[in-house]
Amino acid sequence: MSIRSPKQVLDAVVEAGRWAPSVHNTQPWTFAVAGEEISLRADADRKLSVGDAAGRALLISCGADLFTMRTVMRCEGYEPVVRILPDPDRPGLLATVEPGEQVKADEPTWVLGGEIERRRTHRAGFADVPVPEQLIESLVKAAMSEGAKLTPVRSPDAVSVLAALTQVAQGVQVQDQRFNLEVIRWARPPGSTRTDGVPAEGYPREAALTEPHFPQRHYSWRHGWGRAGDQNETVTGVVAVLTTRGDNREEWIAAGQALQHALLYASAHGVSAAFHTQALEIDLLREFVRLELCAGEYPQMIMRLGVTFDAKDVPRRPVSDVLE
């Protein structure tokens, strides 16, 4: 395969960057190209002012985007040269990426690149299909290579605690009208042509209960949208927590890169993720999780991993919307 020009590479990187996962599918990023350098910027207009006041989820989302960009650049035959938070006077500039020396992508990189548009977030229980232990170990290594720690929760008691904390957080949040309005801002009605947010077919009206139960977001709050739940998908799956040693902006971006590395690897082996960040959006509950369940490390994501046969399309903004 011939090496493409730097411009063709940059076009491919921006095109693929749109497919990274993000909180509520807000896609809170923009790109700018100057010469052979791409700037990844946070889109403050897409930040969740109620549920993500500190911008942690926004930066995790953009970190996932950054890993996507790096992966595509390697697949295109160039080693990415990355600078993270390169300008303290421009906090919205999260990273710059430019093609470095020419390289030949290895097979694992090609596998990850092939999953960028296929990976899907799941929002219900999983099928009764076990996740191989060897795969979990590989996901742990993938996250570690990006500077974060992915820990599968082995203790049934600890899983029950996380489920209970998720239920508590959800119960608190549904009493907050501002929070609910912010969530349903990103819930799309049936037939919507919007290219962001969570489409009605992307979440169940009433998800089948798992044991223990990890509640889903109330995207259907007061309007009854959503698809019929699959009553055959009731398995909790493997519960895992993604943590970092610190809790600053650079650590949040690292967590996003680790998350996307693990998600793409999992997708290549038929495993999807369901995210549960409710407890991490309430400071007291997040601190409890940190001290009691994460050995003092900072929890950045709580997720369930499992197998689903529910394939669905997800909207993505066109390049013209994200390229400045």
UniProtKB/TrEMBL annotation:
<keyword id="KW-0560">Oxidoreductase</keyword>
<dbReference type="Pfam" id="PF00881">
    <property type="entry name" value="Nitroreductase"/>
</dbReference>
<keyword id="KW-0285">Flavoprotein</keyword>
<dbReference type="InterPro" id="IPR050627">
    <property type="entry name" value="Nitroreductase/BluB"/>
</dbReference>
<dbReference type="InterPro" id="IPR000415">
    <property type="entry name" value="Nitroreductase-like"/>
</dbReference>
<dbReference type="InterPro" id="IPR029479">
    <property type="entry name" value="Nitroreductase"/>
</dbReference>
<protein>
    <submittedName>
        <fullName>Nitroreductase</fullName>
    </submittedName>
</protein>
<dbReference type="GO" id="GO:0016491">
    <property type="term" value="F:oxidoreductase activity"/>
</dbReference>
<feature type="domain" description="Nitroreductase">
    <location>
        <begin position="6"/>
        <end position="40"/>
    </location>
</feature>
<keyword id="KW-0288">FMN</keyword>
